[in-house]
Amino acid sequence: MALTNPWLSGPAPTQKLDHERLSERILNLLSSQNMCVLATVGPDGPLATPVRFYHLDFAIIFTASARSPKMRNLAADPRISLGVFAPLVGQASSRGAQIFGTADILDPAAEDFEHYWQAYRWQSDHVERGNSLDDPPLGPLVVVHPTRIVYTEHWLRRQGYAPRQHWRPC
């Protein structure tokens, strides 16, 4: 049988990308996607929720109703995991990241709120809901600071690198 991508067969390479190249690939993924699956844990156990996000460098930014289950969970335990992935057509296109870290819930009075708020693109949602751009939302902003990222890209095998790479901040 003819293989479209013969480099996918056999044992996976184990070579690691250097930190700069791995960082660049992760930032490319974050810049090309806007949805993730957010995992929190609460009194009823794990909760996985699709969330639209923005990023500023490696910080992941999203908003949610202060009364939502995910926000209640984060208020009790700020540990977080996010899954970001590109559309999958086949093994050769497999690309995604598992992001682990802690979440800071910032209200508009918080010192860093404005810094991260500038990266959050709230305008289209606001207009879609019939709200004026002159009256921006004032809800909490969640900022996730990664402590580690597990990045997967099967195309790396073609270049002799392990398809699963591990990133930590410098």
SSE order and pairing:
Elements: H1 19-32, E1 35-42, E2 45-52, E3 54-56, E4 59-63, H2 69-76, E5 79-85, E6 95-106, H3 113-117, H4 123-128, E7 141-153, E8 164-167
Antiparallel strand pairs: 1-2, 1-5, 3-4, 4-7, 5-6, 6-7, 7-8
Give a short synopsis of this structure:
With 170 residues, this protein is an alpha+beta fold.
Q: Can you tag this structure with a few keywords?
A:
single chain, 170 residues, alpha+beta, 4 helices
Q: Report how far the terminal alpha carbons are from each other.
A: 45 Å
**Class computed from helices, strands and strand pairing:** alpha+beta
Radius of gyration: 18 Å
* Rounded average pLDDT: 93
How much helicity do the residues have? 10-25%
Name the helix and strand elements from N-terminus to C-terminus, one letter apiece.
HEEEEHEEHHEE
The DSSP helix count reads 4
- Say how many strands there are: 8
- Stretches where pLDDT is under 50 for at least 5 consecutive residues are none
- How would the global form be characterised? elongated
The largest sheet is: 8 strands, antiparallel
Strand content: 35-45%
